[in-house]
Specification:
The chain has helices spanning about 10-20, 75-80, 105-115, 120-125, 160, 195-205, 235-245, 260-270, 290-295, 325-335, 345-350, 360-375, and strands spanning about 1-5, 25-30, 45-50, 55-60, 65-70, 85, 130-135, 140-145, 170-180, 180, 185-190, 215-220, 225-230, 255, 280-285, 305-310, 315, 340-345. It is of the alpha+beta class and about 400 residues long. A hairpin with a 2-residue loop joins strand 12 (about 215-220) and strand 13 (about 225-230).
């Protein structure tokens, strides 16, 4: 497939406008780390926007940062670290799951796929931290949405609409985030136990006044471990750990230091457990209280690997990408609510199966209407999320 590389917003607008006039289409590419996530795109040309990089404006005192969409996540995190700040939603680098080099993820890709990590239980998703953006829609029009202040109530909240849209509504060119102070200390409290017990204890921990920033269950040699991440000042963390020791005194427990905590939750957020396992991957989101029933119903005993995040609200499953698995998982979401997504599979499987949770007729009509409003000629990432859209 032909690739064109553009260097600024005006060039992108011109290229999209011309493509719309000629009834052509683009597959949008920046870091390229998640090109194989979602349905294969039916496009004529790859639109490479990786040159749109660099921090435009950073106001540490206001906790606001604006950067171009092609800026690497590693560059943003380095700039924020100098001011003891961070992106509060803990962006996930999923690139290595698809064979890409770690560290190539860009802000545009993070926003387009709503790629947040374990800290979502405390801070929310990507869309909760994006306060403004610029993008080029499918007509070649440049749109500015939101602003540079956290309190912003003007107009429609288009920045949130762009989060998780997989580039089907516009080519992101610039994004403004609210950022968060970096905690003085981070630690993880681990409880060695079986899955059913671990998921129950994570829900109990979520109800404690600890403001936990991570609630995950990971498999280990001979069993599994429920991990509760706490953060704050040194004194606050010590107090939270003491409360956890008191609450879970009946179990075998351990405390992970700052470096170990950072490593284990980076692995949880980026799903690095699956990097060396040759298996298809599904992500199942259900109410946390139903996680154990969902695991039983999906046939977890046959999974190549699995683990839980968000106190059981997110299940990463190493299950085959076939009709039987899809029907079983969608049956679970129909029963409990939530959604099942085929995260990694062959191109053939992603063409044949419904990658994202099937929409109800009413919601599908809204999806088509929104796509038509932003991209009437279907220039941008056609069929990346749903067939015919």
């Amino acid at each position: 497939m032909k690739t064109i590389s553009l260097h600024n917003e005006a060039e992108i607008a011109d290229a999209v406008r011309e493509a719309a006039e000629k009834n052509m289409s683009f597959e949008i590419l920046s870091g390229g780390t998640k090109q194989e996530f979602g349905r294969p795109v039916s496009a004529d040309t790859i639109l490479d926007v990786s040159a749109l990089s660099g921090i435009v404006k950073y106001e540490p005192e206001e906790l606001v940062l604006t950067a171009r969409a092609g800026t690497k996540l590693t560059d943003i995190e380095a700039a924020l670290a100098e001011k003891n700040q961070m992106l509060g939603f803990e962006p996930a680098d999923w690139g290595p799951l698809f064979g890409a080099q770690a560290g190539r993820a860009t802000l545009g890709g993070i926003v387009a796929t709503n790629a947040c990590g374990a800290r979502r239980v405390k801070a929310g998703a990507v869309r909760d931290h994006v306060i403004g953006c610029r993008f080029v829609n499918g007509k070649g029009e440049t749109i500015k949405a939101g602003g540079h202040v956290i309190k912003n109530v003007t107009g429609f909240d288009l920045p949130k609409l762009m989060c998780g849209a997989f580039g089907t509504l516009g080519v992101l060119t610039e994004i403004t985030f609210r950022v968060s102070p970096r905690p003085e200390r981070v630690a993880a409290f681990g409880i060695d136990c079986g899955a059913e017990t671990g998921l129950r204890l994570l829900r109990e921990a979520a109800r404690l006044p600890l403001d936990a920033s991570g609630l995950s269950y990971v498999l280990s040699d001979g069993g599994g471990t429920a991990l509760i991440r706490v953060e704050g000042t040194h004194a606050a963390v010590e107090q939270k750990l003491a409360e956890l020791h008191k609450q879970f005194a009946a179990y075998e427990t351990k405390v992970l230091d700052q470096d170990a905590t950072k490593n284990v939750f980076r692995a949880v957020s980026s799903a690095s457990h699956f990097r060396e396992i040759a298996t298809d991957i599904w992500r199942l989101c259900v109410p946390a209280v139903n996680a154990c029933d969902a695991l039983t119903s999906c046939g977890i005993a046959s999974a190549a690997f699995w683990y839980a995040d968000w106190a059981g609200g997110l299940l990463w499953l190493g299950l085959p990408a076939n009709d039987e698995t899809a029907e079983r998982l969608r049956g679970i979401t129909a029963r409990f609510g939530g959604h099942a997504t085929l995260m990694r599979a062959t191109r053939q499987a992603r063409e044949r199966l419904t990658v994202f949770e099937p929409e109800t007729p009413a919601r599908a009509e809204i999806t088509r209407s929104v796509k038509t409003a932003f991209d009437p000629k279907r220039v941008l990432n056609p069929e990346r999320m749903f067939q015919g859209v």
